[in-house]
Amino acid sequence: MGYTPPRVTGGKNLSESPLGFRLLSAVSAIETIAEGRQVQTREFLRRQYGGRNWRKLKGIARVEKVDGWIGLAEIHWFEAHGVGKVQWKIKRKLES
Q: How far apart are CA 56 and CA 45, in angstroms?
């Protein structure tokens, strides 16, 4: 059984599934936090996933956590050309 990336409603395939939560909407208000040498974990990312020119991004999406919580959250992740989006995490909940 192979890996199937999640599909966001109205969106495209994501390269790595977020752990501990599920996206219920497309990510909006996307901003770049760091890119290139500013990404402190770039060597780990390069060894783990390959790729070059890593960027750290943030955005807002409606999510469902494994504990059943559903709401808007600020999400952070890394991405690189040819690799896609990896290392998803919820940075903070925007509504309770």
A: 11
Residue 18 DSSP class: P
DSSP state of 6: -
d(CA 61, CA 74): 7
51, 45 contact by CB (below 8 A):
yes
pLDDT for residue 76: 93
- What tokens appear for 51 in the block? 């790729």
Question: What pTM did the predictor assign?
Answer: 0.75
Kindly state the tokens that stand for 71: 């709401």
Angle at CA of residue 13, ends 65 and 57, nearest 5°: 65
